[in-house]
Design a protein that fits this description.
The complex is a heterotrimer of chains A (244), B (238) and C (250). Chain A is mostly helical and 244 residues long. In chain A, 75% of the residues lie in helices and 0% in strands. Chain A contains nine helices and no strands. In chain A, helix 7 (138-168) packs antiparallel against helix 9 (196-225). Mean pLDDT of chain A is 85; it is low at 231-244. Chain B is mainly alpha-helical. Chain B has a single domain, classed as MetI-like fold. Chain B has nine helices and no strands. In chain B, helix 3 crosses helix 5 (101-125). The N and C termini of chain B lie far apart (65 Å). Chain C has 250 residues and is α/β, with parallel strands linked by helices. Chain C is built from nine helices and ten strands. The longest helix of chain C is centred in the last third of the chain and has 16 residues, at 172-187. The model of chain C has no long low-confidence stretch (mean pLDDT 89). Classes of the chains: A mainly alpha (244), B mainly alpha (238), C alpha/beta (250). Chains in contact: A-B, B-C. Chains A and B meet through helix 4, helix 7 and helix 9 of A and helix 3, helix 4, helix 7 and helix 9 of B.
Chain lengths: 244, 238, 250
Amino acid sequence: MRPFDPYFIWTVIPALLPFLSVTLAVAAGTLFFGSLLGGLLAAGQVGGGRMVRRLAQTYIYLVRCTPPIVMLFIVFYGLPKFFMEAFSLDINAWDKIVYVWISFTLLFAAPISEVMRSSYLAVDHGQYEAAVSIGLSPRQAFFHIMLSQAAVVALPNFGNAVISLMKEGSLAYTIGLVDLIGKGQLIISVHYGARALETYLALTLIYLVLTLGVEQLFSFLEHHFSGLPPSDAAWHPVKPGGEV
Amino acid sequence: MELDYSFLEKTLLLVLLAIPTTLKLTVVSVLAAAPFSLFIALVRLHRRGALLRLVTAYVTFVRGTPIVLQILLVYSLLPSALKAGAAGLGLSVDVFALNPVFYAYAVFTLNTIALLSEVFRSALGNIAPGQMEAALCAGLTKPQAYAYIILPQALVSAMPNLCNLTVNLIKGTSLAFLMTVQDMTATAKIAASYGYNYIEAYLDVFVGYVLVCSVVQCLFHYAERHVGRYRLVRQKQG
Amino acid sequence: MLKIRNVHKKFHHIEVLKGVDITVDKGDVVVILGPSGSGKTTLLRCMNFLERADQGEMEFDAVHLELMAASSREIAQIRKKTAFVFQNYNLFQNKTALENVTVGLTVGRGMSRMQAEAVGMKALIKVGLADRANFYPAQLSGGQQQRVGIARAIAVEPDVILFDEPTSALDPELVGEVLAVIKQLAKEGKTMVIVTHEMKFAAEVATHVVFMADGNIVEEGSPEMMFVCPKEERTRSFLRRILPQIEYNI
């Protein structure tokens, strides 16, 4: 058994940090596309006809039953095969991160659509009625009155979903993407597995800083948008590592 | 899409046969975690000082790190720690002969302890304080009040979150293959590696998880209805 | 039977009780009146240690206690001899009406199930809810829930029953049925301490009336004296606001 070397944790962190950009890119891309898809799903559930609603609900249900790693593998192995047979397109040259984005977008859209839907429904419909009664068009009422209030209600749950996303994104290394953990595995193999514990501890530290940072960011945003004077505002901290 | 249907069928059976392993991991983790989670929830609701800080740090740590990292950490740490601990007690343990499923139980239980404590904390925190007061006034001791009045009510309000937690745990156990445990995902991976039928195997395991999660959600639905039958709609009798 | 001396209680630097004495003899119905913030509910809650007083002594049937330093065993003993009826009923939501009444007997006092149910049914009959014995609180109206709360209190056969504004949370039509039960208990000679706003009821049922304001007892005496010719101006102005039709003769 090799002796545990705490100093190694300190030295490995600079080797890992450049790959933080990959981890963050995964999160950012998923956040963007996942929110778009989630918004579509939420809109379908709230405003769509029965067929659309059923479709959206079925999608959400199925995705919520799917482990992230299974989704990752299905997309990673299935998409090239599908593209080959349907469009005779060879997409095997696509960067791994694209598969990661697609998988996690599909996954993230489900809980995020629930967050959007429930926060929209939480806004008193009377607000919309008041808006149209003073002459705003339904569209304006939605965008200027309902949406901004819904966004504030959604903040805590949105923050929890983002933190969940960051943690789930760590699975990207299993299909070979060199993000934080991917680089960590490379470093471990260079040392023939002797420095595994130290590397994982370093990764843990980095992730803790990340998630606590996001949590603080959302706490600040909630505080900022709560509309209460700074001295009276009650803190509603987003829980670290939050689940939706 | 061209799929190897005979492989699809065969592997589906294999995956379904692996469901008990997945369920065992889930159920054992939740049951083993429950007493610790209850303890942590009570500490976070009613105590101050070092114990509170310790417990909060533990929950923050588990909730702030990806489960895959927790698995990798425990899997690389536990064997050496066990060996050292056993040596300290004067025993010799062949850590490599230990069934890897033991490590899986350890990781998932440690993870669940933190997440479950949050569920208990919010459920217990939502019980009206008057219930405890009335129980004490009726002559019950605090432990009796918890057993007969508080915990049953907390359990009911915790049901939806418990369902979520269980479903998430079932999905989390899909990573047990990293510890060479033969759960549903591992079975699919192994089957796929023989003939490179990856997509068929993973579609099968997808079906398997949808099945398991659906049954679990159904069970929770009925369980909630049953234990929550005192929360009936008000019938004004006048 | 029950004497409390010199009770002081502070909540966050605000002194809510500034040295209050109360004596309750067997068979008394003591009614405590006063404006909100007078400390009457706090006083009641200090009596069975739902609030811990900062200072004061209690003498219950020759047992002497310091209110601040009482041990949990002493508190449990006091609670075995008293019962409390809450403003918002506090019925055990997960138990039927009958179970609400018997839990204190079976779990709290070790009575057998059959015996407890017999006692419990007697109590429910007394409050007029025998036919609702298997209903859950969610299925009962407010007045019915409060009556179950009273049944729960009388089933344990306490020496004193403490009522904290028993009808304040009820719709007006339901107040009468609860007051009727309490009046019946008074007729049977049960010892009670009642904090209430219901003046007419207080006048009918009380053997002793206490008027509190700002954490002190302003005046106390028989109901005839208190309601018809109160001595203190504070008492008079309070009653004037609540009962404009009562005339005072000198």
